[in-house]
Structures are given as structure tokens and as C-alpha cells.
Amino acid sequence: MKNNPDRHVVVGEILRPHGVRGEIVVRSFADSPSVFQNGRALRLTPPQNRPGNCVTRTVTARRSHAGNLLVTLSGIDDRDAVETLRGFVLSIPEGDLPPPPPGEYYRRQLIGCRVLAPDTPHPVLGVLDDILDMPGQEVWRIIHESGKEILLPANPHTIASIDLETATIIATPPPGLVEVYIPGAAAPDPARGE
Length: 194
Prior knowledge:
Shape: elongated
Number of strands: 12
Structural class: mainly beta
Low-confidence stretches: none
């Protein structure tokens, strides 16, 4: 899957001002703080429930303070200016993303992939619709062809392989998991002679 330079990827969210000189406390969604390097152009998009237009600003400074990422952006010079941007999301062009390390993937690459479980009585689980951050682990939300959701814990025991070329994920769900979500998908029980 190739990067699309016209598509933007969310890398953070503006939380609040820090001080009176326009520093911004940012919740970063990026693995690396280099996404917020000096000179980086960021698109600021208002939350869905607020009117406003997207604007582009350039990172002029970045630092950490008390476990928070603080960023200064061009044209935002005081606390009041930052207050108007609370909740705005920060994004960069998809083409600016570095390639992920081998064996790792961006979430956006996985959304929309078919999820198969070929060694089970229900070989087609559905399409990966969302990735949820739950306490302790990621949970993948898969939409079955029936329209019902399947929540699959995503870990090395349940994800056997990912093939982005074919947009296919091979899963090994725990016994009985799919049956919880899809009535009638029960596997035969050898103990009952099935």
C-alpha cells in the first residue's frame, strides 16, 4: 500500500495552552516526536462539532515538560490564540510519514483488510473496521458479513499474519470467541459426537 501525499493523517490533538506565550500542550498520536520537528507543517482541523476552517501552521519549537509535549506554532503567539484551538486535531500529509519498521504497520493500513480464520469452522470473520485501545491491549473491531461486530483481542496469539498486498489478515481467534458474537457459528463439539 503506497502513501497518498494528498491524504492527511492525524498525528495529535491540541489539549490546552501552556503559559502565556502561545505554547500548546499536544496529545501526540505519533510514535516518534520527530513528527513535531521544527519546520514541520501541520494542518489544524476543528473538531466536528465546531465551525471553522482548516489552517496550516509550522512548528517553530518543541519540548517536553512534566511528561507533556509542548509545541509552538507559527502565528499563534499568546494564550488566547491557543484557547481558540482547543480540541483541534493536527495532521500531516500521508506522504510525509516514514515507513514503519519491518513487521509493524500503521493502523490506517490495516483498516479495511479482510480478516480470515481458515483453521476454524467460520473461515471468513469479516472486515477490520476499527482498532480500539483498551486497557492492556488493542482490540480489533471486525464487521462480519451479517453486519454484526466481532471484537478480537489483537496480540501475537490471535494474529497469525498480515499481507498488505492482498489486504488480508489471518487470525486465530480463541475457541468460542466468534460464537459469542455470531449465533449459529458454533463449532462442532466432539465431546457431544458432533
